[in-house]
């Protein structure tokens, strides 16, 4: 129950305006917050009286503001309830559908980082909520209001004089899951032009060739669900509910040592162990299979052109960092194919690349090139970026979670390994520019064009420094004019 007798589906009893009563609490609060944000612009150059009227009108849209005018006690109650309302108001179901089931099949609400935190474990910290794009907000609003859309909730009133206004149920414009997914897919930011030249075997080489950074792959709600899933898995590991080699929590005996790891699909041996097993995949050790939510992540990575369909991950490792934890310089073992990728959560950190990374102290490294990894970003390692340059993560300033997805060399897979059936035959989405236009099946001949072909995923946003357009077409050969052709024939005749 919301303040003033309002519910999620109905406005407060205090609202008497027939137009406002056609909207529910969610719509009223969204409108109030939006207009309040733009109030300085809307009231610009207006007199104090008019500015006050506009301000009061905007405030009156918010149900909590109406109730707040009653008493200070009611105001305090409104704030508490407003917190709960905000959480429920932005509940998300993902464009792929399955995200809303989470890990245990139950839908979870989104939380604002300024008001709530990922709770129930003292080790959990607030999950920063990245700035949401318009596509995210539109998709989440549509999903959260599916039941209201079915009933109709938007009211309209007659503008004719003398007629009484009435609420008429209408349906909001619906976007299919495919349409919503394509909106977000086409708004992914991709950077593929990393350059760092170092001398390798006597030649200067771009040691970062093959690196890609993809942003806006996961919405704020999806990131929260993934982080919650990781913490749940960590609790299971602590309680002995995961296989022995799945969960590892070493004793933190010095700065940078103590990173918690959770492995799925295969058990990777970082160094020669007490049994003499060399670094690599342990073929006689079993770990838990990839969780269902992580398989959804893999499907997203393939469908959204982050990883190729020829290299679908069949294993992953979760790293849970505390402040000061790090990963020393290394090149990933070739028991895993290229490319592979790492997804970052909770906080931004930097990763260093170079052929000669130096250890300056516990958790402190120096190298030729540094790349910041934003929250929710995916870093793909391939080519020189995976095999020529080493990489490391210096001591992180705050809690961080990363998930690295890799595909095993088939000859290195554990004994008895069975590929996940629902990760077979994944197909990437098609860019809008690559789709055939119209319904005609008539094949049209190719015509020469002066325009150069540009891959959509390489288009640069000049203000943000993303990848430059990459041109693939060749310049056309010059054809001699008819006059030049006649002169050539005359010269041949004279000879």
From TrEMBL:
UniProt feature, compositional bias: Polar residues: 471-485
InterPro entries to which the protein is assigned, alphabetical: AlkB-like (IPR027450), AlkB-like_sf (IPR037151), ALKBH9B/ALKBH10B-like (IPR044842), Oxoglu/Fe-dep_dioxygenase_dom (IPR005123)
UniProt region (Disordered), positions on chain: 64-179, 434-495
Cited Gene3D superfamilies: Alpha-ketoglutarate-dependent dioxygenase AlkB-like
Regions of compositional bias (Acidic residues) in chain numbering: 138-149
Gene Ontology biological process terms, A to Z: mRNA catabolic process
Residue ranges of every copy of the Fe2OG dioxygenase domain listed in the record: 312-409
PROSITE patterns: FE2OG_OXY
Bias-annotated ranges (Basic and acidic residues): 163-179, 454-463
GO molecular function: demethylase activity; mRNA binding
Family named by the database record: Belongs to the alkB family.
Name the record gives this protein: Fe2OG dioxygenase domain-containing protein
Organism for this UniProt entry: Ambrosia artemisiifolia
């Amino acid at each position: 129950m919301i303040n003033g007798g309002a519910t999620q589906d109905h406005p407060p009893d205090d609202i008497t305006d027939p137009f406002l009563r056609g909207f529910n609490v969610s719509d009223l609060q969204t409108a109030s917050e939006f207009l309040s944000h733009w109030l300085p612009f809307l009231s610009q150059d207006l007199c104090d009286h008019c500015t006050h009227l506009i301000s009061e009108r905007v405030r009156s849209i918010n149900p909590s503001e109406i109730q707040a005018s009653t008493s200070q006690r009611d105001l305090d109650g409104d704030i508490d309830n407003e917190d709960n309302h905000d959480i429920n108001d932005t509940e998300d179901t993902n464009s792929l559908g399955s995200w809303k089931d989470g890990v245990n099949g139950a839908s979870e609400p989104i939380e604002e980082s300024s008001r709530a935190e990922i709770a129930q474990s003292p080790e959990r910290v607030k999950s920063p909520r990245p700035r949401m794009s318009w596509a995210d907000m539109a998709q989440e609003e549509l999903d959260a209001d599916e039941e209201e859309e079915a009933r109709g909730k938007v009211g309209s009133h007659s503008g004719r004089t003398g007629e009484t206004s009435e609420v008429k149920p209408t349906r909001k414009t619906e976007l299919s899951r495919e349409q919503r997914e394509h909106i977000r897919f086409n708004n992914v930011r991709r950077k593929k032009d990393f350059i760092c030249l170092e001398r390798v075997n006597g030649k200067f080489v771009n040691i970062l060739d093959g690196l890609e950074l993809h942003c806006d792959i996961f919405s704020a709600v999806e990131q929260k669900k993934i982080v919650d899933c990781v913490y749940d898995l960590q609790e299971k590991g602590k309680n002995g509910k995961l296989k022995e080699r799945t969960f590892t929590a070493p004793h933190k005996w010095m700065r940078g040592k103590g990173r918690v790891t959770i492995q799925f699909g295969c058990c990777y041996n970082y160094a020669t162990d007490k049994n003499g097993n060399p670094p690599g995949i342990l073929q006689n050790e079993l770990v838990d299979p990839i969780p269902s939510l992580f398989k959804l992540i893999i499907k997203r990575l393939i469908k959204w052109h982050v990883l190729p369909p020829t290299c679908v991950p069949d294993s992953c490792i979760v790293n849970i960092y505390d402040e000061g934890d790090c990963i020393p310089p290394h090149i990933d073992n070739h028991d895993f194919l290229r490319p592979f990728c790492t997804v970052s959560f909770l906080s931004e950190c930097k990763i260093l690349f170079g052929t000669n990374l130096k250890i300056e102290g516990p958790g402190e490294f120096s190298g030729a090139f540094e790349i910041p990894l934003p929250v929710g970003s995916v870093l793909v390692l391939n080519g020189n970026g995976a095999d020529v340059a080493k990489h490391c993560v210096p001591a992180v300033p705050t809690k961080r979670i990363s998930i690295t997805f890799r595909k095993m060399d088939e000859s290195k897979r554990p004994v008895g390994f069975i590929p996940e059936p629902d990760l077979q035959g994944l197909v990437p989405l098609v860019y809008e520019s690559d789709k055939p236009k119209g319904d005609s099946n008539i094949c049209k001949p190719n015509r020469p064009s002066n325009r150069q072909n540009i891959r959509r995923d390489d288009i640069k946003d000049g203000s943000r420094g993303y990848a430059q357009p990459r041109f693939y077409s060749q310049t056309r050969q010059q054809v001699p004019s008819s006059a030049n052709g006649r002169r050539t024939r005359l010269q041949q005749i004279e000879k």
